Amino acid sequence: AAGGRALRWANGRVPTRGFRASPRARIAMPSWVIDRYGSNDVLRFTREMMFPIIHFPNEVIIKVHAASLNPIDLSMRSGYGATALNMKRDPLKLKAGETEFPLTLGRDVSGVVMECGLGVSYFKPGDEVWAAIPPWKQGTLSEFVVASGNEVSFKPKCLSHTEAAALPYVGLTAWSALNQVGGLNQSNCSGKRILILGASGGVGTFAVQLMKAWDAHVTAVCSHDASTLVKKLGADDVIDYKSGNLEEQLKTLPLFDFILDNVGGSTEKWALDLLKKWSGATYVTLVTPFLINMDRLGVADGMLQTGVTVGSKTLKHLLKGVHYRWAFFMPSGPSLDEIAELVDSGKIQPVIDEVFSFSEVPEAFLKLEGGHARGKTVINVISRQ
C-alpha cells in the first residue's frame, strides 16, 4: 500500500503544500450531537457545532458527502466504552473539568478534501476520499470532519459517495480480524475453509467477499431471510442458525482452518471445536470484554482483567492445538487503499440496507437499533449522492 502511495506521488501529485486557511472563516457547522449518554432522545441537531480545526501537520478537513452508522454508534450513544475512549482523548488529563460533549457520532465518511495540514503531501483540496474515523475523535454526522492523513484513502472510482460510505469501518474491522490478526492474505487463502458467524451484517458481508476474493472456501452462518444475499456475495455454504441446533449442523461439515466470530456469547464455548487441531487453525472474535471491563472496573483494573482473560484463553486453546485471538477496528489509510483496489476490480461491493437523509438521523439510529440489518445504514449528508 505504501508503494502504491509513492507511485501516485510519482505520477504527478503535488509533493508538498502548506496549510490553507479557509476564505470562508467558518466557525460553526450543522451537526448531530449528544450532550449526555442515553437512548435515542439524546440525539440533537445543531447548526452551532464548532468547525473542525487542523491541530497537527498531518491532518485534513473533509467535507462530508455521506456517512453511515455502525453498532458502535449505538453503543457510544449509550455510554459504552466511555472510560477507555476518554482516556484516549486526553491521556495526560490536561483538560481537567472538560467533558467529551457535545459529541458527534458516526465513523464512516465519504467526501471531498477541503483543507490540508503542512505535512500532508498525498492529498490536495478537491480530492474525493473515504475514511473511517477512530471512535475517540469527533465523528462524521457533521458537515465537516477532521482526520489524520494516514486514516484517509482515495475513494474507489466506481462508487458514489453514498455507496462508498458503507464500507470503511466494517471493511477495516474485517481486515483487522482476517489479515492483521488472523494472518490471512491473497497468497495463503486458496482452498482454506473459512467459517463466518454473523455473515449478513456489515462486517460479515464484507468478510465473505474478501475471503472469496482471496479464493477461500466460505461457510456463512445467517438467518434464512439473508441466505440469498450471502449466497450472492459468493458464500459456498450457507447455514441457517434458526433451522436447528447450529452447533450440530456445523459438526456435520469438515473442520475449518479459520473462524471469524461476529456473534460472541455462548458461541465461543463450542466454536473452537470446529477447527482443525495442530494445523495453525485460528479463531478470531470481534466480541471482547475490553471496553466493558474498563467501564466497570476503571482503567487499571479493567486492563488487568482484560489481559488475564485473553492470556488464559489463548493458553487454554493453544494447549488444545488451536489459536485464539481478539480483533478490533484499526484505522488505516493504506489498508483502505488495498480495499479500494478490490472494489474497483469488482471483487467487493457495498451492501446497503437503507439510505436516510441528514434530517433523518434519529430514524436511522432507530432502524439500526431494530437489528437484523442486511448491510449498512447510510446517511446522505449532501442530498442526491
Overview of the structural elements:
- This protein is of the alpha/beta class.
- Mean pLDDT is 92; it is low at 6-23.
- The protein is globular and about 60 Å long.
- It is built from 13 helices and 16 strands.
- Strand 1 and strand 2 (43-50) form a beta hairpin.
Map the helices and strands:
Layout: H1 2-10, E1 28-34, E2 43-50, E3 59-69, H2 71-77, H3 82-89, E4 103-104, E5 108-116, E6 128-132, E7 144-148, E8 152-154, H4 161-164, H5 168-181, E9 193-197, H6 202-213, E10 217-222, H7 227-232, E11 237-240, H8 246-251, E12 258-261, H9 267-271, E13 282-285, H10 290-297, H11 299-318, E14 323-326, H12 333-344, E15 352-357, H13 361-369, E16 376-380
Parallel strand pairs: 9-10, 9-12, 10-11, 12-13, 13-14, 15-16
Antiparallel strand pairs: 1-2, 1-4, 3-5, 3-7, 3-16, 5-6, 6-8
Helix pairs in contact: 5-6, 10-11
Main sheet?
Answer: 7 strands, mixed
> Total domains, how many?
2
Number of strands: 16
Radius of gyration: 21 Å
Mean pLDDT: 92
CATH hierarchy: architecture of the largest domain: Alpha-Beta Complex
Q: Note the total helix count.
A: 13
Task: Give the helix proportion (percent range).
Answer: 25-40%
Residue share in β-strands = 15-25%
Family: Belongs to the zinc-containing alcohol dehydrogenase family. Quinone oxidoreductase subfamily.
Keywords: Acetylation, Membrane, Mitochondrion, Mitochondrion outer membrane, NADP, Neurogenesis, Nucleotide-binding, Oxidoreductase, Transit peptide, Ubiquinone biosynthesis
Organism: Melospiza melodia (Song sparrow)
Pfam family, one: ADH_N
